[in-house]
Amino acid sequence: QVQLVESGGGLVQAGGSLRLSCAASGRTFSYHMGWFRQAPGKEREFVAAISWSGVSTDYADSVKGRFTISRDNAKNLVFLQMNSLKPEDTAVYYCGAHTYYSGRRCRDKYAYWGQGTQVTVSS
Known about the structure:
Blueprint lengths: L1 E6 L2 E4 L4 E9 L5 E7 L6 E6 L6 E3 L7 E6 L4 E6 L8 E8 L13 E2 L3 E6 L1
Parallel strand pairs: 2-11
Antiparallel strand pairs: 1-3, 3-8, 4-5, 4-9, 5-6, 7-8, 9-10, 9-11
């Protein structure tokens, strides 16, 4: 079992920045990690993913160049640095853990999810 807890969300003006954190506990060895988001009335969508080693990363086109995913395996933490935020980035952000990096963009491949953290970007 893996437990995930997100934090760092909040209200920010367009153009601002936020840093989300995801704290993992339990049997976290070898899990790849990802961030998804879900806006009201929309499906949960892929945002970014990082391999267990941290060597490989992947981003949705909508956030590429603005968001950066990273991890600290010694502290069981995963981060999502979000810069140049836009109103369309407003959503609940979830971190997830999965074992197959090839499925990193597919939410059905994730075995564990956190409870989410709200990000609101005002115009």
